[in-house]
Each structure stands twice: as C-alpha cells, then as structure tokens.
Amino acid sequence: MIADGKSTEHPPDRLGRAMKNIWEFQADLTRRLALGAVISILLGLGMLLLHTPLWRGMAFQFIGWGAVDWIIAIAGAIGSRRARARQHSPEAPEVTRREAQKLERILWINTGLDVLYMLGGALVALFPGASNAFWLGTGIGIVLQGGFLFFFDLIHAWQIRQSVLPR
C-alpha cells in the first residue's frame, strides 16, 4: 500500500509471478547493464596484462564497450527517474503501458543493431584480422560484446512483454 491507500501490487503474469512495475524494471535493467559494463572493463584491463596483439585488440573493445555501456546505464537510470517524476500519476496504467512499450521498442531496435555489430566484428576478424593479430582480437572483441548486448536486449525485451506490459 502507498500513502493514498491504493495498492502497489501488480497482477500476476502468465506464469503466476507478480508483474513488475515498469519503473522497477528500468531500475533493474540499468543496474544490470552497469554491472555488465564494470565486468567488461575489468576483463579488458586483465586482457591488457597478457601483452599480445590479439589480447590487446580484445581488451580495447572490452574497455571501450564497457565504458559506453556504463554511460548508457547511468543516463538510462537518470532518464527513467526524470520521466517518472514528470508524470502526474506515474503508476497509472496508461503511463506504465506507454513507458513499457517505449522501452520494449528501444530494446528490439537495439537487438537488431547488436546483430549488425556482431556481423561487423566478424568482418573485421576475417579481413584485416586474417593477417594481423590485433585486428583479429578487435573483431573477436566486437563479436563478443555484440553477443552480450544481443542477449541482454533480447531477454529484457521479452521480459517486458511477459511480465511488465499489462494485458
């Protein structure tokens, strides 16, 4: 219950679990992305210790993509809090539905872009990487980072459809 006496409970989803509020979902998503970013940066820093061109190429990708993901996570968390604060009734079904649909659309678009990242990384690994270990590592790093983001975005888009969007 909240102060005005209205329940903050959400009806169960198709599997019988309590549905998440979109604002909670966005907070969880940005925390997970920030965690993934930090792990990526730490792995990249560790790869730098291996002192080979292949690992250096991968390391730069892990550090760079991790930094960008961290910035996106912070910006997403701030943006979500501001969007919620701007709403007169942030828990109103029409508001939560609109926000959930907007986030779901962004995640599906990102899922498609992630495929392009992986294809681009494969091309880098195959062509300049065929004769240069640094470029091979760069391409592999892009494929791995794109793969992480593909599954991250896909899973979260699916979760919105299954347990956030009201039916």
Structural class determined from secondary elements: mainly alpha
**What percentage of the residues does DSSP assign to strands (E)?**
under 5%
What is the count of DSSP helices, taking H or I runs of 4+ residues? Answer: 4
Helical content (DSSP H or I, runs of 4+)? over 70%
Low-confidence stretches: 1-8
- Rg, Å, rounded: 19 Å
Assembly state (oligomeric): single chain
By DSSP, the count of extended strands is 0
Give the biggest beta sheet: none
- Which H/E pattern describes the elements? HHHH
Average pLDDT metric: 90
Report what the structure shows:
This protein is mostly helical. The protein has helices at 22-48, 53-86, 93-126, 133-164. The chain is elongated and about 60 Å long. The chain starts with 21 loop residues before the first helix and ends with a helix. Mean pLDDT is 90; it is low at 1-8.
Short description:
This protein is an all-alpha fold. It contains 4 helices and no strands.
